Amino acid sequence: MSKSNVTHWTQTHPELGTGPVPIERAMSEEFFKLERRRIFGSCWLKVGRIEELPRFGDFLVKDLPVCQTSVLLMRGKDGQVRGFHNICSHRGNKLAWDSRGNCRAGVMTCKFHGWSYNWEGRLAGVPDEVNFFDLDKSRNGLTPVATDTWQGFIFVNLDPNPAQSLKAYLGGIVEDLESYPFDQIPFSFGYWEDLNCNWKIAVDAQNEAYHAVWLHRRTIGDIFANSDDPYAHALDVKFYGPHARMSVPGYDLWHTPVRDLANRIENKWVMRQGPRFGTSDQMPKGLNPSRSDNWTFDLYMIFPNLWLGLFNGFYLIHEMWPMTVGRMRQETRMYQPPPRTASQLFTWEYQKTVNRDVWLEDFSTLEQSWEVLQSGVKKVFNLQDNEVLVRNFYYWVERMVDAQQSPAGRAA
To answer: Which CATH class is domain 3-22+172-403?
Structure first.
């Protein structure tokens, strides 16, 4: 890709500007308090997948320190997944202590005094009920949380009356990924890490491919560059209001040790597994939208903290969960078909270690950046054109916090 042929993505979105982005709001305790309420308290947040609740009575707990609450998801007798604040109506005990499980007959019982709730969140039983004063059981069930699904992903919204449905919130992403086979690709493995940094620093690290050639030079960096395109310039960029997509190029996909090994072992099984689209024309229009032969994957940033890396046949996700202004949890999961032969199993296990190392490379900069940014010496981030998703992210963070703008915005 010659310099004269580079698309200037930032210039096609003049509302984002081209100047430096202030650092201070990634450091401010007061700004973080506003983010709690105006972003995480009003946006749709991905908290699980439907496969994690396969049977009646199955439950899943997602603690949300940024929102100072815990969410309980339950599969009902009618097959529906419902969400509730994970708190008993009696004395405020956390109702479900385990991260997942199955409650017998769809009834969850509090460990403190034995109050019980059914799968619809209704208060089902109160020990020694006659000694309460005018207790109205119908008004003391679990507090519901707005819950919906898209492509098998479970989302909640902590606003009691969300301004938008989940589908409206996601906007054009729904149509662009309509036929991506999420439901055919099971969970494979994952990692998580608690990090000393602001959550936005972690989002920034996944919101561009500018780092890929250099930071990942010891692992997979060779995939993303060639002599005509040494810096992994985006093939395509699209914004869906606060959400974004970038198509990442790829060259000589097998010129890395793990892929060379996979090629020798199992006919390139690592990259040729699972429900695949035979040609680019068969792909959803949101997957490799430029229909380039030199394409690796599309990254989708679903605001505020869900990152999807979509390949042809498998995908991975990152979730960046704030805890405090300077501490967050990064959760990473790979989804791919299971191996069916011994050689595939070897390749599959080897791939785990490679992905682990790539993700450790990604995580390695976060705490180091946070440590020195607190000095206050640097006041701005200087962003180049292929960091336009970072720029869009900060544009929407500030817009929602400052003006309490609805995330509907300019959703395509």
So the answer is: alpha beta
